[in-house]
Amino acid sequence: MRLSCPICGERDRREFHYGGAALERPAPEAGAAAWDAYLHLRENPAGRSRELWYHESGCTAWLVVERDTVTHEIHGVTLAAGGR
Amino acid sequence: MAELIALSPAGAALPKRIGAVTLTEAPFAPMTGISPHAGEVAQVSAALEAAHGLALPGPGRMLSGAGIEVLWFGRNRWLLIGAAPGDGLAAHAALTDQSDAWVSVIVQGAAGVDVLARLVPVDLRPRAFAEGSVIRTELFHMPAAIARTGAEDLRVMCFRSMAGTLVHDLVTAAEAVAARG
Q1: Nearest C-alpha in B relative to A81
Q2: Is the CB of A6 inside 8 Å of chain B's CB atoms?
Q3: Which fold has domain B11-28+100-179?
Q4: Which of A5, A57, A62 to mutate to test the interface with B (most CBs of B within 10 A)?
Q5: What is the pLDDT of residue B6?
Q6: So where are chain B's domains?
Q7: Which CATH class is domain A2-79?
Q8: CATH architecture of B31-97
Q9: Quick check: B136 and A61 CB within 8 A?
Q10: Pairs from B13-16 (Cβ < 8 Å, separation ≥ 24)
Q11: CB contact, 8 Å: A40 with chain B?
């Protein structure tokens, strides 16, 4: 598997570290149920998923990777920090 | 005060010539990590240019001047080699002295790319990795920075504590390449 880092270009999977599902953080006052789900509940999708990957031995950027867990196809890689 | 003996990271293990490849340790040079404060990359670049005549290079690039090099060194990070950081930089960036933190080995010779191909998961041939290119990657599981400083010159940098392993890995790979003739 290879990931196209927006900063470094296409790199081997061994340079990256998996960082879990890329979730939207709930607002502080969203309530216990929303925060419980954010902290503890995870989907296990067969198909498209949004994941965080850390370019550990490259530029050290956190990336949001859209990946198909069935076909291993990569649909997109963006910086988790956006343009910052 | 006691007179201390300065030891280079690779020490007596280098230089070495193996087949058509020469491994030498780069001479000691002051190194400073430059991490611009949030949103202040342009100010740091201007301050660097005023003090040292070089701007901050873009991702994957390096710039050299008179005895001075500036390497892109990761996301929003750069490394200044060859001079103490000039005035004006500290106001816009976090500066860290890394002079003793790295071991730098210069891999010289056309077969240098074949040696590193055995250790690094990135294409370092000149057409993919031209002069003035820099990458952060790994070398046999060690974090490394590699720069092409000349047509047949590659500079490999690893953490100083891993100098022995780096030399061992480079020598082993170079011997294997040389054995193929």
Answers
A1: B75
A2: no
A3: Gyrase A; domain 2 (3.30.1360)
A4: A57
A5: 84
A6: 11-28+100-179, 31-97
A7: alpha beta
A8: 2-Layer Sandwich (3.30)
A9: no
A10: B13/B163, B13/B164, B13/B167, B14/B105, B14/B167, B16/B171, B16/B174
A11: no
